[in-house]
Amino acid sequence: MGYYINFTRLSMKFFLFLWVCSAVNGSCMTPALQNPQPFNSHYECVNAGYLDGLQMVQNIGREEVERNRLFVAFNCKPETTI
Question: Which of 51, 45, 47 minimizes the C-alpha distance to 17?
């Protein structure tokens, strides 16, 4: 038997933040880039994070990514509104 919490009055949105990071110098650019579109679920946000990250890496280009060992990190932050 567990606890049941009714969240019918709460609406959870997720916001995507992305950083371009360098493994050469061990740092990430700041501030993070924020996707202006809120997502209705963590799942949707994570999918967008991978897709946006891939697009960023492709736009930066192979040479720059290799030279600076760049990668994209992201986080989906929840925000609850009533």
Answer: 45
- How many CB atoms are closer than 10 A to CB 74? 19
Q: Are 77 and 53 in contact (CB under 8 A)?
A: no
pLDDT of amino acid 11: 79
Q: How far is CA 62 from CA 8, 50, 51, 68, 72, in A?
A: 47, 18, 17, 10, 14
3-state SS, one letter per residue, for the chain: CCCCCCCCCCEEEEEEEEEEEECCCCEECCCCEECCCCECCHHHHHHHHHHHHHHHHHHHCHHHHHHHCEEEEEEEEEEEEC
What pTM value is reported for the model?
A: 0.81
pLDDT tens-digit series, residues 53-65 = 999 999 999 999 9
